[in-house]
Amino acid sequence: MRRRISLPLKLFLIVFAFVLSCIILISQLSYRYVQKEIRTNDIYYTNQILDKVDQYLTVNFSSFQTILFSVETSVKANIDNTEVIKKQLRELYELNSNYVSNIYLIKSDLSILGGSTTTRIFDEPLSDREPLFDAADKNRRTTFVSDPYKSKYSGWTVTMVRYLNGSPFPMAIAVDLDLNAIEETLFKINKKEQMNLALITSSGKIIAGFSENRGPLSIQDHTFSIGETSAEQILNTSGTSLQLHTKEGLPVSILKKPTEKFNWSIISINDESRLEAALSRLEKYYIVLLVAGLLLSLFISFFIAKYIRNPLYALKTKMKRVEQGDLTTTVTIKRNDEFGDLSRAFDRMLQQIVELIRRGELHNELERKLEIQVLQSQINPHFLYNTLGAISNVIHLGQIEKVDVVIGSLISSLEYGITDASEKVSLRQELQNVSDYIAIQNIRYNRHFHLIEHIEDGLMDFPVFRMLLQPIVENSIFHGYNGGEIEGSITIHAYRKGDIVMIEVIDQGEGIPADKIKHILTAEPSDLEVKRKRIGLHNIHGRIRLHYGEQFGLQIISIPKEKTCVRAVFPVDLFKGGVCG
Predict the structure, then answer these.
(1) Does the pLDDT of residue 203 top 60, yes or no?
(2) Angle CA(528)–CA(534)–CA(538) in degrees, nearest 5?
(3) Contacts of 219 (CB under 8 A, 6+ apart)
(4) What share of the chain has pLDDT > 70, as a percent?
(5) DSSP, res 478
(6) Bridge partners for 229 per DSSP
(7) Helices (DSSP H) in 426-497: which residue ranges?
(8) Start and end of every HAMP domain (predicted)?
(9) Mean pLDDT, rounded, of the chain
């Protein structure tokens, strides 16, 4: 047989799985969100660094432009005094030696007047100055910035050159930038921020950077590539960011920004080592969080299962005791929640069951007594005695024709009365019994009690208690007509009203005082009724209520000296009718 899993254990497993799943889901979503935020912030932070580098280059560009204009002003003022020009070039160079490799004038024969120590000594013409001089000559109103190249005296450099307008001799002013100083600045940023920055020309040449931290790069002849993508292709790609892969398949993030003053681009290449380090620290935190979540899930699941298990077992114990027949069991659950309500409702239900059993026993006992009383009254010796006396009287009076009527009515009444009192009869049968009873009473009292029947169509077959109407009619003759001293009519009216059927017995006799009506249906039978074995109205009222409910029974309406109506109310479906006439 398959073993059944208890509800608390199921609840424990469900809650544990639910809480742990929620924690894992929230952790994973949080991790992915934080990972995304780290990437976003990393991109934002890198762009901030690129902006700072661009600002640094813009400041340097302004400084270089200032040097060029200073040289231009000085040369124009001392065009005929070469020594003064040399001296001023030397002073400008020494003042800006942290940023520039040389400051000099290029003559048309490609010889120079230099500011650095080397160029002051060696000023012979060099062919690599020709492109610089030609560019300045073609763009006399602007400053020309060369591509990086290898200078004999300045090493790896970039030259800013400007034509000297207003000079009697064709000349150009040149400043060789100290790329080592720029590169050192980039290296400091790379080291501090764990980045990989470089300045790149539009053709993909490396001006400065990368050399100390190549990472995923392949650098050859002052240019670079990532995987199969060259530097020029990277620069020509639209957008400021792109994702590439190295030859080994590792992902690489690239951000690029064009400089404001130079025709260069600032490149940041991140192989995600910095991001992976941050995520590695984050993963350790989430592992701790998951372990804590596991322990928390166990605690919460155990607590909830225990919170449900204790009252559940208490209720189960109580139900087992009830199942064994102990209806007085009390297992109190003192809680202000659904289990407390359920326990209290269960106790109330047990009390109601006990009360129903008690009431059922009383009901059966009362019903038994009522039925016995009906059986005892069905053969009423006093009634039989009076009827036989009436037969004797009519014989002495010579009214022989009435003897058969009395005897026939008596036989019918006796046959009707000795049948099982609990058996239901039709209204037609009950009316016939009343007719026989009144026929006997007419002869007995030598009066005429006229029986009038107003029965709504369809109600002749309505089921009623045996001996329902005769006691009410007897009550009308005995009380309404003073025991036969006066005569009058007795009307029986049956009709439907909504979902009930009303059967009324109406007499025109003495009536009943209002202060006595309310006691008739609740009072115990009087000594006279007990002696006479008469069925009281309270007996009929009780039988109807026992069988159909307390909303049914007898109603008494009486106007003293005019009329009394005793109404029996029964439940029925699909009947509607009138009122007391």
Answers:
(1) yes
(2) 95
(3) 206, 210, 211
(4) 81
(5) I
(6) 226
(7) 427-445, 469-475
(8) 306-358
(9) 80
Please give the distance of CA 331 from its chain centroid, rounded to a whole number: 35
Residue with tokens 């007990």: 530
| Structural tokens at position 435 | 């007719």
**How many angstroms separate the CA atoms of 296 and 21, rounded?**
12
- Reading the block at residue 134, the tokens are 């030609």
Nearest to 230 by CA among 186, 197, 267: 267
Q: Are 110 and 126 a contacting pair, CB within 8 Å?
A: yes
Q: What is the pTM of this model?
A: 0.48
The CA distance from 497 to 575, in Å, is 6
CB-side neighbour CA atoms (13 Å) of 559 = 7
CA dist 94 and 115 (Å) reads: 8
Please give the DSSP secondary-structure letter assigned to residue 508.
-
Sorting pLDDT into bands at 50, 70 and 90, what band is 296?
Answer: confident
**What is the residue-wise DSSP string for 226-267?**
ETTEEHHHHHHSSSSEEEEE-TT--EEEEEEEE-SSSSEEEE
pLDDT on residue 530:
43
pLDDT for residue 299: 76
DSSP state at residue 450:
E
Query: How many residues are recorded in the chain?
Result: 581
- By the 10 Å C-beta count (0-12 exposed, 13-18 middle, 19+ buried), 64 is classed as buried
Q: Are 161 and 136 in contact (CB under 8 A)?
A: yes
Give the integer Cα–Cα distance in Å for 567 and 501: 10
- 489-497 vs 450-455, strand pairing mode: parallel
Cβ neighbourhood burial of 517 (10 Å; 0-12, 13-18, 19+): middle
Nearest alpha carbon to residue 48 among 191, 193, 183 = 193
Is pLDDT at 376 greater than 50 in this prediction?
A: no
Please report which residue ranges of 113-207 form alpha helices under DSSP H: 117-121, 130-138, 179-193
When computed from its CA atoms, the radius of gyration of the chain, rounded to whole angstroms, is: 62
Q: Say what the pLDDT of residue 324 is.
A: 73
Q: What share of the chain is helix, strand, coil (3-state, %, to 5)?
A: 55, 20, 30
pLDDT at 398: 66
For the chain, the first-to-last Cα distance in angstroms comes to 73
